[in-house]
Amino acid sequence: MHNRKTSRRNVISRAFTRSETYLFIILFVLVAVVSIISPRFFTARNALQILRTSAFTGILSIGFLFVLIQGGLDISFTATATVAQYLMALALVSKGNVPILVVLLIPIAVGMLLGSVNAVLIHRLKAPSIIVAIANLNIYYGVLQIISGGTWIYNFPDWFDRVGKGFVFAFVDENGATFGLSYLTLIWIAVAIVAVVVLRYTKLGRHLFALGGNIEAARRSGLSLFRLRLFAYSFLGLLAGLAGIVQALDTQTVAPNALVGREFDVVAAVVLGGANIFGGAGSVGGTLLGVLLITVITNALTLLRIPAYWHQVFIGAVVLASISVTSLRALLARRKERIIDVR
Predict the structure, then answer these.
(1) 187 and 55 in contact (C-beta within 8 Å)?
(2) pLDDT at position 336
(3) What is the pLDDT of residues 135-153, one digit of tens each?
(4) Neighbours of 174 (CB within 10 A)
(5) In this structure, how many other beta carbons lie within 10 angstroms of the beta carbon of residue 201?
(6) What is the mean predicted confidence (pLDDT) over 82-94?
(7) Is 94 left (phi over 0), alpha (psi -120 to 50) or beta?
(8) Dihedral sign of CA atoms 295, 292, 141, 147 in order
(9) In DSSP terms, which residues pair with 181 in a beta bridge?
(10) Beta-carbon-side half-sphere exposure of residue 232 (alpha carbons within 13 Å)
(11) Which residues make beta-bridge pairs with 153?
(12) What is the pLDDT of residue 318?
């Protein structure tokens, strides 16, 4: 009996050393408070809508997590998603009857290509990843603006509209309106499952953590730094292309200036989830909680009719509070580890 109690205390103690635990508590309290203030918030319809709205940010956040874990920093993913999405849209509205599979593969292939360009430049030039990312963000975005002339694309085929508005399973409310689990949410869930498997159960995942934790140790152990970086940045590019598809399915329009500027939500979600900005630490579960927290904040402020410019203020405050708590915990942990010689 004593061993069981000790084991239970150890489990609880370990749980409260993880960022995910505190993030879950914050999310739970926020949901409870907003549900009391606004009865429209705590409904099945709104919950499923939050999951759908989270898809774009969630997919990008998982890709960004991979880059962050291996010690890099890439914020060009919104420009990558924009370019990939726009090329897909051109294929969709072309009169050449491009096969559906080709249409969907275009943004994924473009995303992987642009992501690999980042990896090659960072590795070969030995340039800071954030500098390369900012440069490429402006290049990708600027070139698209010049070529597209800022033209929006819409009037997509019927099948694209059906997929965007379709449900895995649906319900009908008392007013006769249909709601349910969107296909877009299902895509996000599938990406999360793949990410968990890669990071937790494969040698590749362990190597990514090793590279981010200590690059010199990773090099001496014989790991291919270039291949790991190429995978991480290409994977982010792939997910940027996929996120572009999801966003186009959701809005049924593609604008060359709609996505750039949404990097902060992605970075905030991953940092809130406990990922180390310097690499070597992070989890898919924490990232998903971070995405949900940001989406819930935005959804709640919208339901409460709080002006949109307050959204970023609240999200910024939450991120700052999270970083402060993490830093304080690290400081307290270091103090406990100190050995004081009283001789």
Answers:
(1) yes
(2) 60
(3) 999 999 999 999 988 889 8
(4) 5
(5) 10
(6) 91
(7) beta
(8) negative
(9) 169
(10) 34
(11) 254
(12) 76
Instruction: State the number of CA atoms in the 13 A half-sphere of 292 facing the CB.
Output: 23
| Cβ(80)–Cβ(115) below 8 Å | yes
CA angle 267-118-202, nearest 5°?
A: 70
The answer to whether the beta carbons of residues 241 and 109 sit under 8 Å apart is yes
Cα separation, 240 vs 261, in Å, equals 14
- From the CB of residue 199, how many other CB atoms can be counted at a distance below 10 Å? 20
> 271-294: per-residue pLDDT in tens?
888 888 888 888 899 999 999 999
Nearest to 284 by CA among 265, 303, 304, 270: 270
Asked if pLDDT for residue 31 goes beyond 70, the answer is yes
Question: pLDDT tier at 57 (50, 70, 90 boundaries)?
Answer: very high
Measured in whole angstroms, the distance separating CA 121 from the mean position of its chain's CA atoms is 23
Query: Is residue 342 predicted with pLDDT exceeding 80?
Result: no
